Amino acid sequence: MADLFHEIDQCVTAPKGFRTGTTSCGIKSDAGIKDLAILVSDVPCTVAGVFTTHNLRAAPVLLCQERLKGGKAQAIVVNSGNANCATGQQGLDNAYQMTSFTASKLGIAEDLVFCSSTGIIGRQLPMEKIEAGIQQIELSTTDGNAFAEAIMTTDTHPKRMALEFEIEGKTVRLGGVTKGSGMIRPNMATMLSYITTDAAVEQAWLQQVLKEAVDDSYNMISVDGDMSTNDTCMVFANGLVDNTPLNAQHPDAPTFVQALRQITFKLAREMARDGEGATKIQTINVRGARNKADAVKAARSLTYSPLWQCALAGGDPNWGRIAAAAGSSGCEFDQNAFDIFVGETQITRQGIAIDYDQDQAHAAMAGDEVIITIDLHLGDGEATAWGCDLTHGYIDENSLYTR
Amino acid sequence: MADLFHEIDQCVTAPKGFRTGTTSCGIKSDAGIKDLAILVSDVPCTVAGVFTTHNLRAAPVLLCQERLKGGKAQAIVVNSGNANCATGQQGLDNAYQMTSFTASKLGIAEDLVFCSSTGIIGRQLPMEKIEAGIQQIELSTTDGNAFAEAIMTTDTHPKRMALEFEIEGKTVRLGGVTKGSGMIRPNMATMLSYITTDAAVEQAWLQQVLKEAVDDSYNMISVDGDMSTNDTCMVFANGLVDNTPLNAQHPDAPTFVQALRQITFKLAREMARDGEGATKIQTINVRGARNKADAVKAARSLTYSPLWQCALAGGDPNWGRIAAAAGSSGCEFDQNAFDIFVGETQITRQGIAIDYDQDQAHAAMAGDEVIITIDLHLGDGEATAWGCDLTHGYIDENSLYTR
C-alpha cells in the first residue's frame, strides 16, 4: 500500500483543475473567522453524493438532491455559522440564490453549482453578506487547506487528506476534506465532506462506491447519537487525467476504491477523535454477529450510549455497560454466548466474566485510543464503528450555543 | 379527584396485610447502607408484572417471568448493589436460591416468592451474605418507607406514594414504591417498582391495566437513553378487602385504574426529576402526530437527545435541536408544518421561526421544570414524555462506577 498511494498536501486542490477560495463575510459573529468558501473545477465534473436521511432536511440538502439528478457539477459554495434549516420556502429560495450569485461570479451554468450550509438551525441566511462575500472571494489552485478551515464549526482542527496514485499508468489525485465534531451519528450528522479527483469516473459507479465507502466510514461514527439535518458528502470527478472513465469493469477500479476508502476512513476517524469535548477515541469491532446489519447495530450502540461513554471517559472497563448497550441495540444477542475484549484482555466468555487481569484491562482503557471487541458467536457478521467519550467539555460546548 | 383519593403514608405497607423488612447485609461496600429487603403479604396475592425488553435480561427477571405464569405471588426479595445480570447459569441458580431462603424464612411456598436485583452487572451475588441477611430481616406492617430506601441505588431520595379510596363502599388502599435514576429510558431501565393493594382484582385485567399504566408513565421517561437489563414493575393484590374481584365490567374499575395511574405517573415523574445529575425536569407534550405511536416517538426523542439535554441544562431555548430530535425520531414529520412552544411561547409556525419574545422563551427555560409542546399538524396522535437535562453531575456519577 505504501507503494501504491502517496500522501500529499492541499486536499481538495491537490487534483488538477480545482480551485478554492474563502472569506469572512460576517455570518459568524466573531469578525475575521472564515465562514464562506467556494470549490470550483475548471471543467464540469461527474458528481456523486450522499445526504442525511433526517426528516428535517436543510434547504441546501434539498437543492443538492435535486441537482444531483443531472449527474454533473462544477462548483459548490459552502457557508458555516447558519444551517439554513427549518427556514421554509424563503430558505430554499436563499439556497438557490446562493448558487446563482456563485454561478454569476464564476461565469458558469447555475445548475452546475451546489451549496451547503452548517451552523445554527432556524435562522434565515444573511443574503446581503453572502452576496458580498461571494464577490470578494479570490480563487487559488494551491489553497485547499484554507477551504478545510473555512467550513469548520466546533471542530478544533481541519480534517483533510490527499493521495496520489496511478490509473492506466497516469498520475491521479484524490483529495478530501471533512468538517464535523458534534451531532454526529450513524447515517451522518452535521458533517460536510467534499472529495475531488482528476480521474474520469462513470457517474453510476461513482455513486455506488461513494455510498459503500460512506456506509463503512462516516456512517459508523458517532459523537452523541444526535442526527443532523445537513449532512452532505459529495465527490467531484473532473476527468482532466483523461483516463478511460472508471467503472466496475475497469482493471484499476480497485485502486480508486481503495484510495477513496482510505480517505473516508481517515477523515471519519478524525471526526470521532475531534468529537466535542472528546478526550478519547474508541474503536468498536464486532464479529460473530448473525449478519452485517446486526454487527453494525451492535458496534454503533457503544458509540451513543452515554453510560458507556462516561465509563470510557473515566477509563473504567465497566463491561456490563458494553453488554447492556450491545444487548439493547436490536441485534440478535445470546446472553450466554458473547465474549468481550477490552484491548487485548478478554473479560467475558459465554456471557459471564472470567478471571481477567484487572490491571491490564484498566491499562487498555487509560490511553487516548481504546479498542473494544465483541464476539457475539452467532454468525459471521462483522463491523467496526468509531466514537468518543462523554465529558464535561461536551456539555460546556452544548449548553449555551445559540446565545 | 380530591374527594375520591386520599394520599396516605407508608406506601407498600399502607394496604392491609403487607409487611416489609430491610437490612444491610454487606452487598454494598459502604457498611450500614441498606441493600436487602423483603415485601410479603399475609395471604397469596393475584400478581401482574411487566419487565425489561432488553436482550440481556438479568437472572431475577427470568425468574419473575417464569413464576408470573402462575398468576400468584406472596413475597418478593430485593437486593441492591448487584444486578445479578450476565451471570449465566450460576446467576440463575442464585436467584432461585434467594427465593428459597426467603420462602424458608417466611414459611410459604417457594414458587410464590419472586426476586429482583439492581446494581453492577457481571458479578455473582455473595450468597452467604444474602442468606444471612434474609435470616436477620425483621418484618413490620408499618415500615414501607424503609423498604423504599433499601432498594435505592443512585437515587437521591426514596420514591413512594399511597392512596386510599373506595370500592363498593369499602376502603381500599394502593401503595407504590419505585427506584431508578440512571439508565432509564422508554421501555424501562434500571427501574424497580412494586405496587400493593388490598383490593381483590382479576389477574388478566390487572395485567392489562398495569401494562397500560406503565406504557403511559414509566415507559415515557428517560434519563440517558440507556436501557436496563433488570426493569421490573409488579402489582400484588391480596384481596383482603373482600370486594368482588375487579375486572373491566366492575362499576368501580375506573376508580382503581385512576388510582393506579396516579401512582405510576407520580413515581415516573419523580424518577425523571431524580435523574443522575439532573437539575431540571422536562415535560414534552406532542400533539397532532399521525397516530399515538408517532407521538410517542417524537416525545421520547427529546428525552434522550444529548444535544437538547445540554441546551436544557443551559436554559437555552435552542428550538432547532428540538426540531432536529423530533424530526429524526422516526415519526412522520412535515418540515413545513410543525409548531414548537417553549412553555407558553410559540417559537415556530409551519416549520419556521416566528418573531417570538426571546425573554419570555428564556424565562420558560430558566426554572427547574420546563414544558415543551410540539404540534406536528398531521393527525390526532398525542403523547407526553418526561426527562431531565444532561450535566457534569451525570458524567461524574457514571465515569467511575465499578471501582
From TrEMBL, chains A, B:
The record marks 118-119 as: Involved in the stabilization of negative charge on the oxyanion by the formation of the oxyanion hole. GO terms for molecular function: L-glutamate N-acetyltransferase activity; L-glutamate N-acetyltransferase activity, acting on acetyl-L-ornithine as donor. One of its GO terms (biological process) is ornithine biosynthetic process. InterPro entries: Arg_biosynth_ArgJ (IPR002813), ArgJ-like_dom_sf (IPR016117), ArgJ_beta_C (IPR042195). Substrate binds at residues 153, 179, 190, 276, 398. Signal peptide: none annotated. It catalyses: N(2)-acetyl-L-ornithine + L-glutamate = N-acetyl-L-glutamate + L-ornithine; L-glutamate + acetyl-CoA = N-acetyl-L-glutamate + CoA + H(+). SUPFAM superfamilies: DmpA/ArgJ-like. The record marks 189-190 as: Cleavage. Its EC number is 2.3.1.35, 2.3.1.1. The keyword Acyltransferase applies. It is found in: Cytoplasm. The keyword Transferase applies. The active site is at residue 190. Its main location: cytoplasm. Transmembrane segments: none annotated. Catalyzes two activities which are involved in the cyclic version of arginine biosynthesis: the synthesis of N-acetylglutamate from glutamate and acetyl-CoA as the acetyl donor, and of ornithine by transacetylation between N(2)-acetylornithine and glutamate. Heterotetramer of two alpha and two beta chains. This is Arginine biosynthesis bifunctional protein ArgJ. It comes from Ktedonospora formicarum.
